[in-house]
Each structure stands twice: as C-alpha cells, then as structure tokens.
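Entry 14. Ran structure prediction on the chain below.
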Amino acid sequence: MALSRTDDLEVVRVLTHSDPSRRNDYPRPALLTNSVEDLVAESDLVVVASGDPVGATAPVEAALAASLPVVTMDAELQVTVGSHFARRGWFSEAEGDQPGCLAALREEALAMGFSPLVYGNLKGFLNHHPTLKEMRYWSRVQGISLDKTVAFTDGTKVQIEQALVANGLGAGIAQDGLLGITAEDVPSGGVALARTAEDLGEPLSDYLLGVPGAPAGVFVTARHEEEERPYLQYYKMGDGPYYTLLRNYHLCHLEVAKTVRRALGGGPVLLNNGTSPAVQVVGVAKKLLKQGKVLRHPIGSFEVRGVAVRSRDHPDLVPIGLLDGARLTRHVEEGQTITQNDVDLPESRALELWGGLR
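Output, structure tokens:
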C-alpha cells in the first residue's frame, strides 16, 4: 500500500481472485474487488504485480482497451505476453525491480554520453536444486512465499528479469542460461562481460554471481569518448576504456510511484518486452517428469526452473509462464527443455496472445 501513502496518488481498487468478504487480513478490505470492469471504470491507471502471466492477462487487456496506462512490476507477465501489450498502449515495467532499475540507469548513462555494453544484475547465490526443507526455512525467515523463494534461489527469477532487459533494451544474451560469471568486484566483472559484448557485437544482458560485498543492485558497464578518459579518471571511474555505473539498491514497491507519475505525466515508456522479442524463458526439468504429470506453479517449483534462451534457436519453445496446468504427453528427462511436443497446454487468453506473437 505504499502508493496510498503518497500525497498525489490514491489507490481506489485492488483486484483479487479471493473472496473480499473473507480478507480480514488485508489492511483496506473495502478496496478489494473481483470485477475487472469495476477496476477499470474507477481507475486512471492500473498497476500489475501478480507474477501470474495467465491471470494478469485479462485485466491488462481490459485496461489498455480502455486507454488506461498500465505499470507493471511483473517481469513474468512481460516476458510471456508483454510484447502483445507493448503494441496496444502505454505499457511499462516500473522502477523498483532490477529490470526497471536497469532501464532507469541506462537513461542516466545515455544522458551523460556513455555507450552501454552491459546491463547487469547482481545475484548473491544460486542453487538449481534446493530442497523443500531449505526453501520452507528461508521462506519463513524472509517472510516471502515459498514459490518466490524457490524462483529466487534456482535462478528462474534472474533469467526472467534479464530476458526482459534484453528484449526491452535492445541487448542480447551470450548463451542459453546466461553466463552468470563470478568476479572479485562489480567493475572487474563488468569489464569481463563488456569484452564478451564487444566480441558478440551487441550489448549484453547478464548477471554477476557471488561478488563479495556486492549490494542488492544493478549496474551498467559502458564506454565513453576517448577525450573524456582523463576526466573520468579524475572522477574515480577507473582508467577505462570500460566504466561501470553501479546503482547499489532496488527498493521494489517504494519506487513504483516514480513510474506511475511518469505515466500520468505523459512521459515515455521506461521498459517493456518490446514488439519483436529475441529472448524467451523456457522451462527445464529439475527431475524426471513422467507422462501424464500436470505442472503446477512452474515459476518457483521443484519440478521446473526457468532458463533464458534465444527464441530463434528454439522454434518449438514454450514460455515457462504458460506451463501452469500443462499436462506432459511424454516423459521429460532431468535437464531437458520442455517443448510444444512434450505438453498439452491449457486454453487461456495468454496462450492465444502468445500464439499471435510467433
């Protein structure tokens, strides 16, 4: 409810699939509604933070059809069907999560004359196969849901975030699953990724893993004009030719208001998945999945993890965001990518929209 504590913004409706009359746990239950029509009719702008691409599709479609701006803190929605919505109206990821913070940092870098080569995330740990016991413990300690804890731990979340960054900021990825290199510090890691970007001939979306003392932030590594080198040395930016701009925080819900004001003030879209995405996030089996198995909540599950891939290399891919409720038509081995030939997907509007993007 951070938006309701601002002087210039007011929360008027909150869409929920639960029964509002039973939501005594919610701080302002009078705002809750089950009606998309009510939400749209009473709002000047809609904020989406569901993490559920299928469930979020209908309200986003309705809001844009009514010419309302839509601000998301929902990289899962963006990488699944965001490219459809990017063609339909003002549709943008917010500052706060890493993708929006990287987009804002890119704007600052460009305004100062830098030429970005790396759009980097910072990840402290990675475990592709966490146990239920471990995840229940950390879910309780951190006060977040079990599925989110798993998605953060097994790398699904960073893969989704960096896919959105790649598509939205015109960058590429170096390989399926990203590089996720280790480094002694952020600048040296940024330099290593920048050299890879120049070898590839395009900016790179990736992350650093386990950098000692690294903050929960994002970074851009870039070049600048040679004539600026002595000034940048004086400003303690290093000897060049690569310079790393570090944003040492991302404050999630506290920053959303900045993008809301941007939208209401007629500003440009900060970031979305673009209209021609080149990177998608697929599901990779964490264990043997047998024929007939129905996948549930794949983003943050113990059965599947997300991996960013180049779409052109995987013509039969299925976005991980569409795998909820999918029934396996044959066995899928551990480490195997789930494809269209492996599953029957449940019908949904999100599936229809994704099909129109292919």
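The first helix runs from residue 36 to 42. Will compare against last week's run tomorrow.
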